Each structure stands twice: as structure tokens, then as C-alpha cells.
Amino acid sequence: MKHKILLVITLVCSLFLLNSCNDKLLMYDTDQKPQLYFNNRTSISFSSFAFAAEDQLEIKVAVFLLGMPKNEDREFKLELVPCQDDAKLTISEKEYRLKTAKLGEHFELPKLILPAGEVSTEIKIKLNRTADLLEEGTYHRIGLKIVENENFKPCADESFTTSKISFSSDYKIYFNDGEPICPDWWSNSGARMKGWAYILGRYYPAKYRKMLALFRETKKTCPQFYNHIVDKYGENLDTPNVKKYGDPNRAPEKEIAKMFMLFWQKDGYYGAWVRYVFIPLYDYYDEYYKTHPDDPNKEPMDELNIMKQEGWRNPRKMLN
């Protein structure tokens, strides 16, 4: 049933697609060489070893067919695109130098196959933890580009678009290691004011790790809550499932910001966040600061100065 539905979708997209440059309706010739593409709305991903205990992470990249499925496996080809020497990446107003990730050192690629009878597949890329990922102020980047071989050709980026799909032959993966950066959602007012929230206090990496440790404990204490949050936001609360929970008509970066904004108040799990994560986190640091009065991260407990963005409100009051 799944294959039939996907086949129908593929045929519809194959027959009638809108040319984004010329605004002309085009007929897809089913006799021409089939094309492969990435969904341009989700053609960038970020990952980090900052919270990982293991030395290898897996990234799954979806590739889609524009054409007819066949009853045989077909190999496709990717080209690795290096970064320019002066390439930069800006995240939440902070600029990072980009370095080209090297195949066989920083990552591994599997054999690139579109399975028989399928109209899409996943490339399972292994990221390797290496010492140079710790270099401060840098991200490594994998640039993938679909190129023509005997079985497929790339769907040109500007060739076709619909209200639901934007085609791209390129995919970029950014990854690093070291201290985790402050997430945009650690805020009461969006990414531009991130770094402080009255229910979490001031951000610093050790607190973030402790918060995630408490969250992971809910896998046993409140599995329904844990499974939903991981499915929607990722185990480290840094990889939102835009494809499943987002609006496909919005730009991915805008949809990510919308999904993460005060996300603990959404989905009917506010009480679970307060009970299982925020209260234990607050109690842990309330006691810790009492025994470590000289800690540079010490902050006023159960006091707030919103103008100065200082203090940490006791989350028990949030249930009143």
C-alpha cells in the first residue's frame, strides 16, 4: 500500500510540475533518464558530538526519485563539494569558520543504491569524532551534490517547484565537537535574546548537560512524554522533526524557530517538564550553589530581574 501511494505521488509530480523560473507548466517525459533530488526545504542538517558519549554519529539523508521505479537496484553518484577558503557559517549571530570534512577521516559514505521498486532511499552517513572537531570557532561541512551516472541525472535546482516540494541537487551537513552552544530556545523572547529564561536561569554548558540528563531519565519514569519529545525535538533537543511536525509551506529556519519557542509549554506536557526536569534541575543547583558559593556561574535563586535577565524562578511557582 505504501509503495502504491508513493508511486501515485511520484507519477503526479512527474507529469505536471511548475517551472519556478519561467512559470510554465511542463510535461515530464517518462522516457527520459530518471532524476534524483533532495528536498530543498530540508537540505541542511546540523550535528554535534558535544553531548555524545560514542565516537561515531549517524546522519540519514533522504533522496527522492523523479521518474519510474524499477524492479532492480540502481546505483547513483554523489560528488563531494569542498568549502571555499573563506567560507563562514553564522548561527544565532555568531560566526564560525567552515572547514571541509574529509571522506575516510571525518565521515564514511555507504554504497549509494536506490533499491528495487522504491521511489526514495536514505543515505546513512557515519560521522567520525576527530581531534580537529574541537577547534574553537569552527564547523566542519560535508557538501553533497547529485551528479549524473548511467542510471540517473540530478534534477536541476531551478527546474521545478510546487507548493509542497522544492528540488535541490545539493545537501550540506555541518558538525562539530566541544562545548555545546546555547540553543535558541533558552530564552523568553526568541533567538535574539537567548541565554536566559526565568524557568531555567542563565545558560551554561554544565547546566544544559544536567538538564538533558534529567530529561533522559524520563525514558523510564515517563516514557510517553520522553518518546514524544525525542520524536519531535531530538534526544538533545536540537534536531526538530520539521518534516513530521512542521508546516511544509514555511521556510525551514522559520518553522524550527516556531517549533522551539517555549516548546515546554506545548503538546500538553508542561506539567511533565516542570515535575521531571525543571524542579529537579532547580533543586540540584540550589543545593550546589549553597555548597559552592564561589562558583562563577552562581545566580540568584527564586529571584528575578527581567530587565537585567538575572535570576532563576523556582519552577514550583509555575504550577500555581
Give the CA-based shape.
elongated
Strand share of the residues?
25-35%
Could you give me the name of the CATH homologous superfamily of the largest domain? hypothetical protein (bacova_03559)
Assembly state: single chain
Q: Can you walk through the features of this model?
A:
The longest helix has 22 residues, at 270-291. A hairpin with a 2-residue loop joins strand 8 (88-91) and strand 9 (94-100). This protein folds into two domains: 2-176, Sandwich (Immunoglobulin-like), CATH 2.60.40.1740; 191-319, no CATH class. The relative contact order is 0.13. The strands form six sheets. Strands 3, 5, 10, 12, 14 and 15 form a six-stranded mixed β-sheet that branches. Strands 4, 7, 8, 9, 13 and 16 form a six-stranded mixed β-sheet that branches. Helices cover 24% and strands 27% of the residues. The N and C termini lie far apart (49 Å). The chain is elongated, with a radius of gyration of 23 Å. It is built from six helices and 20 strands. With 320 residues, it is α+β, with helices and mostly antiparallel strands.
Summarize the structure.
The protein is α+β, with helices and mostly antiparallel strands.
Features:
6-stranded mixed beta sheet; 27% strand; alpha+beta; 320 residues; 24% helix; Immunoglobulin-like
Topology:
Layout: H1 2-15, E1 16-18, E2 25-27, E3 35-39, E4 44-48, E5 56-66, E6 74-75, E7 77-80, E8 88-91, E9 94-100, E10 107-108, E11 113-114, E12 120-128, E13 138-147, E14 153-154, E15 167-168, E16 170-176, E17 196-197, E18 201-202, H2 205-221, H3 223-233, H4 242-245, H5 252-260, H6 270-291, E19 304-305, E20 310-311
Parallel strand pairs: 3-14, 4-16, 9-13
Antiparallel strand pairs: 1-2, 3-5, 3-15, 5-12, 6-11, 7-13, 8-9, 10-12, 13-16, 17-18, 19-20
